[in-house]
Specification:
The complex is a heterodimer. Chain A is α/β, with parallel strands linked by helices. Chain A has eight helices and six strands, in the order E-H-E-E-E-H-E-H-H-E-H-H-H-H. Classes of the chains: A alpha/beta, B alpha/beta. The structure holds iron/sulfur cluster (2 copies).
Chain lengths: 208, 623
């Protein structure tokens, strides 16, 4: 299989590494080769967390600028920050719920106008889906499941035909603690439905 | 539940982190003794042994006080025939190197693998030194995996090589391998031998000059033997038959292979991947160079392989041009990525390499930075504020390595000099003598045991003048809450002795010692005043648990979060501006506290001059 390159960006505590792991386990179940790298310097302390996932044949563990086939952003500013990883073919799926950096609270930085930035991004990439993963996650049972909501949205995107919702479900059942399994299965479903029901496609987010 | 790395079906494939793969490789080799001082990006290697040793009593594991001790304790076991591994980050090897360089002389009788993780780009380190030179410096063999599968396989092999040569083996990785994950085909778990015996042979093991004079030639002989193994090693392989030669190692191998495969010019290239990279396989390099019209060395860090390739070419009178580091080619700085490697390949071999074209982002709005910050409720915040309250910018603040280094950032702005573990304390006396100014050095509890004891003794002995603040949060916070000698770990069922920091400080001869909880802010300020007033070395222990670690302790009860009372708040934001606690945010131009992030440490309530911050009333604290 030709390599598919998926980039996940998030803020520490949003479950990026776990999402990447679930995706990797699903790929392994499918018999695909998978290579991932994670960067979480001081993630617990509110920093940026990046995962790169390369599915299919190859030897590298890294995604260069312009090389991502899919960019999954768990936080809208992080999606914008990682935009240089996109080419005109990249599919972007982004959460619209912000996590304000403390630099903003201190007045040292400003949080940009997200709907507008996403609109610009949407006009330059192969497709952009924006959803409020936090509120879907809350509906599933806890905001912590936003990572799995995003995986559900990815599964519905049809850009990764090798890994469907069923495989991700299996990965959740096998790899997650029973206590949170049901919530996460619901989260997967909600993310999937949100995209399936044909929300906004290329029109960026109508701010929720 | 059995630890997943103990899965004993050799036909299984698992998705493993590079560091887990290293631990698995050691388990497959029958490792019986493991030690470490934690440090990113190596920490997860030790973490596996920490957990497994609690399940299987014939595996011994310890977090040692520092990397040198970790190496020494493992060396003791390996001198008695055991198979041992010690893991650390690159700068940890600097600490351990004193022992390592002479351990190379004595050798070991069992097996010893020294796993060291470099951190190009310094994702979480103070420098990006290239530890491969330690192999050269010590004459010890070195292995460098390129993939997660190799991380496991090479670790297992390293034990056998160590047994064969009776030498410690350096397993050198970089962040991109340690923190990569990949599919790994498992091998058999070898039975471990956990009881050893020591055969006395002082004239081989006690390195007095006359002994060492005999041991050095022995080491060189072993190194020569290692060189011939390296020449035949399948870790040093040649791929392709073209005349464009590319030499690579570690993470760069993947970038090179992917670039060449994608380019469609695979037939023009030949790749030499060096995985057994010390001693250098001279014959293999020569074989490789014979077919090359020019060669490019792709390696992160220093030109370690490049120098070797040039030497081999020179020794054999080859004139093949060798490229590597240099203006317009590769840099000695930072990490590589696939795009960079393609660009240099294209330039050197004058061949088009299709590179991805990123979208134009020049008109995108600036994204607010997310510098790592002390957590909400972190007691270090209070400790720094208390010192700042008393001494402001007038004092010099040498600091040290750990979460508390983050006190550097605004609004705390605490930290003037940072180079190495223990060096804040070590340098303090120099700052004080040179300037006559007040000096306050900071050190964490784990760092204090790592390398604070001897500089403190030295400072007391030499009658230096400064205040040492020991930030005692009861754990090794930065690297994932590993225990250290100052932590009570009885709740984990671990049989360890808890060493009291204050007694240690007094034992080292410090007269003026106080312990205070920095979250009792006014008391902490008083304590700073008292301990910073006199002359000589005084020590203030600021003691309060790391809020992340505290949650994992038995009997932990969460405190009520705090809230801002709008009717009292004058919105001058003294709370936010002084503390920088990340639980604060501004909502509709008013200060608010995120009740999910607030740990109820009460620091801000003590800073607010209007007494506008108070605990959330019980009933609305359901969220
Ligand atoms: S310090 Fe007190 S009064 Fe001032 S903004 Fe903060 S809560 Fe309001
Ligand atoms: S009490 Fe105040 S300083 Fe402490 S965590 Fe909560 S908001 Fe932050």
């Amino acid at each position: 299989m030709k390599t598919t390159r998926i980039m996940i960006v998030a803020v520490g505590g949003q479950g990026n590494i776990l999402a990447a792991k679930l995706l990797g386990e699903a790929a392994l179940m499918r018999g695909l080769d998978v290579r991932m790298s994670e960067f979480h310097g001081m993630a617990q302390r509110g920093g940026v967390v990046e995962s790169m996932i390369l599915l299919g044949d190859g030897d590298g563990y890294c995604i260069a600028d312009g090389e991502a086939d899919i960019l999954l952003g768990f936080e809208p500013v992080e999606t914008i920050r990682a935009a240089k990883k996109c080419s005109s073919n990249t599919l972007v799926i982004t959460n619209t719920a912000p996590v304000f950096p403390f630099t903003v609270a201190l007045g040292h930085a400003v949080y940009p106008d997200i709907p507008q930035a996403l609109q610009t991004l949407a006009s330059r990439v192969g497709g952009l889906t924006a959803l409020d993963a936090n509120s879907l996650a809350r509906r599933a049972g806890t905001v912590q499941s936003l990572n799995v909501v995003m995986l559900g949205a990815l599964a519905a995107s049809a850009r990764l035909p090798e890994i469907g919702k069923e495989l991700l479900e299996r990965a959740i059942r096998e790899k997650m603690k029973p206590a949170v399994m049901d919530i996460n299965l619901r989260a997967l479903e909600l993310g999937f439905e949100a995209v399936q029901k044909g929300v906004r496609g290329n029109s960026a987010c109508a701010a929720d | 539940m059995t630890h997943p790395l103990l899965t004993d079906t050799s036909d299984r494939k698992m998705l493993l982190l590079g560091n887990e793969a290293i631990a698995r490789g050691a388990l497959e080799a029958g490792v019986a003794f493991a030690s470490s001082y934690p440090g990113t990006p190596s920490s997860e290697i030790a973490l596996q042994f920490f957990h497994i040793a609690r399940e299987q009593s014939d595996l011994y594991f310890e977090y040692s006080a520092n990397e040198k001790v970790a190496l020494e304790v493992a060396a003791g076991a390996a001198m008695c025939g055991l198979r041992a591994i010690v893991s650390m980050k690159h700068v940890g090897l600097n600490v351990a190197s004193d022992a390592l360089l002479t351990l190379a002389y004595t050798g070991i009788t069992g097996a010893l693998v020294v796993a060291v993780s470099d951190d190009p780009f310094m994702y979480s380190s103070q420098n990006e030194q290239d530890s491969r030179y330690y192999a050269k410096l010590s004459s010890l063999p070195m292995l460098e995996p390129s993939s997660v599968q190799e991380a496991k396989d090479m670790t297992r092999y390293a034990f056998d090589l160590s047994t064969m040569l009776k030498l410690p083996i350096i397993l050198r990785t970089t962040t991109r391998v340690n923190h990569a994950s990949g599919v790994v085909a498992l091998g058999h778990l070898r039975r471990r031998m956990s009881a050893g015996s020591f055969h006395k042979d002082p004239f081989s093991y006690v390195c007095i000059p006359s002994v060492s004079r005999n041991l050095h030639p022995k080491l060189l002989k072993k190194a020569a033997e290692a060189a011939s193994i390296s020449d035949e090693s399948h870790w040093n392989f040649i791929k392709g038959r073209g005349s464009f030669g590319v030499v690579c190692n570690g993470a760069s191998y993947g970038y090179v292979v992917d670039a060449i495969t994608e380019s469609g010019y695979a037939d023009r290239f030949r790749i030499l991947r060096l995985g057994f990279s010390h001693p250098i396989p001279e014959k293999r390099i020569l074989d490789f160079l014979y077919g090359c019209e020019r060669a490019l060395v792709v390696e992160e860090g220093e030109p370690y392989l490049e120098e070797s390739v040039r030497v081999v070419a020179h020794k054999n009178g080859l004139t093949v041009p060798v490229f590597g580091k240099g203006e317009g080619f590769f840099s000695r700085l930072y990490e590589f990525d696939p795009g960079l490697v393609k660009n240099v390949l294209a330039k050197v071999f004058d061949t088009p390499f299709p590179v991805a074209s990123p979208i134009d982002t020049s008109d995108f709005p600036a994204t607010p930075p997310r510098p790592p910050n002390l957590c909400a409720g972190c007691p270090h915040r209070a400790a720094y504020l208390a010192v700042r309250e008393v001494l402001g910018d007038s004092a010099i603040y040498p600091t040290d390595i750990g979460c508390y280094t983050l006190g550097l950032h605004a609004p705390l702005n605490m930290g003037d000099f940072l180079i190495a573990m223990g060096a804040g304390l070590g340098s303090a006396g120099g700052f004080a003598r040179a300037t006559g100014k007040k000096v306050v050095a900071f050190i964490g509890d784990s760092t204090f045991f790592h390398s604070g004891l001897s500089p403190l003794a030295s400072a007391v002995y030499n009658r230096h003048n400064f205040l040492l603040v020991i930030l005692d949060n009861g754990t090794t916070g930065m690297t994932g809450h590993q225990p250290h000698p100052g932590v009570d770990v009885s709740h984990l069922g671990l049989d360890k002795i808890h060493i009291d920091i204050e007694s240690v400080v007094r034992g080292l001869g410090v007269q003026s010692v106080a312990t205070v909880n920095p979250l009792h802010f006014s008391k902490a300020v008083e304590a700073v005043k008292r301990t910073s007033a006199g002359s000589g070395v005084s020590v203030l222990i600021m003691k309060a648990p790391c809020p992340l670690y505290e949650k994992t302790l038995p009997g932990y009860k969460s405190r009520r979060p705090y809230e801002v009372r709008p009717e009292r708040c004058k919105n001058h934001r003294v709370c936010v501006d002084r503390s920088g606690c990340p639980a604060f945010h501004i909502e509709e131009n008013r200060v608010e506290i995120d009740s999910h992030r607030c740990t109820g440490c009460a620091l801000c309530a003590q800073l607010c001059p209007e007494k506008a911050i108070r605990p959330v009333a019980r009933e609305d604290n359901k969220g």
